[in-house]
Amino acid sequence: MDSTNKCLKEWNATIEALGQGKQTILIRSYGTTSDSFLLYPTVSYANKDNFLEGFKPEHQSFVKENALPKKDGNKVAIKYYATVEKIFEKSPSAISRLQKDYIWTSEHVRNYLKGKKAQVWVLRVYKLKEPYMAEPTPGAIKYANLKEKVSLDNIKPVLSDEEFSKVLEI
């Protein structure tokens, strides 16, 4: 595949953490049938006064700097593409063993899961050759399709093959 218009909507700070190798997984209360997608930044979480409390203290300055995506008018920059390399299930109590793989607090993750088992998505993230300025996708909550396809030519993995092979060991 050399282009796609499929997107997963996610908090911009989380996308930047994935795109800069600070985070390697997504924790979801649901699985996915999509094996790849662009990472479309959202910002609704950043409108809350206490949004930083959901992130570990050592990552809060990073989150504050990356709370909002780059914009041009009403368009947002899509900078990353991800492939789902592995999905596994964990009990809410076992998620804390994966703390090195995400930037959120354990309390935030527990509140999000509400006692449900976690679906842990291990993502291989790639940086696009150039950011794609995407028009808003109203109505879509988790997934969205852009009007145009985005080129995946010359994408570069965020983590080296060696680094990523260690991630797959979780």
TrEMBL record:
Pfam families: DUF1802. It comes from Methanobacterium formicicum. It comes from the Archaea. This is Restriction endonuclease.
